[in-house]
Amino acid sequence: MSSTEQQFDSDRFEKDLKALCVNFANCLEAVYFEIAKEADNPLAASLHQCLVLTDELHTLAELIRSDTNASTDVIATFSDRCTEIETLFKRIDALQEFVANMQEHFNALEATVSKAEKELLHKK
User: Fold this and answer.
1) Given a cut of 60, is residue 84 above it in pLDDT?
2) Each residue of 39-61: pLDDT tens digit?
């Protein structure tokens, strides 16, 4: 099964689960209204509590989904930045090697110039 098919299946599963939750809440609500017609019914109070908890659970699931999406975006951005930093480190290492190489050439050139100056002064 390809990743596209897996993504499609998870999307469908999420939609089906959401529909099931909505249907379940609607059924509980309908039962609650029928039972609530009778005053001071403890079963009605229990069903009402179930409805409240179901709504809280749904809200919590939405918050988790939102946080998961945000975390996924942050992780992807962080991964991209790490790749950029690795590239930057490689460029800095290459620059450091270049500067060290140029320093060696400069020192060699400076030694040659000093030697030539000394030879020129001795010839005079």
Assistant:
1) yes
2) 566 766 777 778 888 888 888 88
Q: Let me know: does 47 contact 32? Beta carbons within 8 Å.
A: yes
How far apart are alpha carbons 19 and 9 in whole angstroms? 15
Contact by Cβ (8 Å): 24, 54:
yes
- Burial grade of 54 (CB within 10 A; 0-12, 13-18, 19 or more): middle
Average pLDDT, the chain: 80
Provide the phi-psi class of 50: left if phi over 0, else alpha when psi is between -120 and 50, else beta: alpha
Does pTM top 0.70 for this prediction?
no
Q: How many domains, in total, are found in the chain?
A: 1
Range of the domain at 106: 3-123
Asked whether the beta carbons of 29 and 51 are under 8 A apart, the reply is: yes
* Cβ 51 vs Cβ 32: under 8 Å: yes
Measure the CA–CA gap between 86 and 117, rounded to whole angstroms.
46
Nearest to 41 by CA among 31, 53, 55: 31
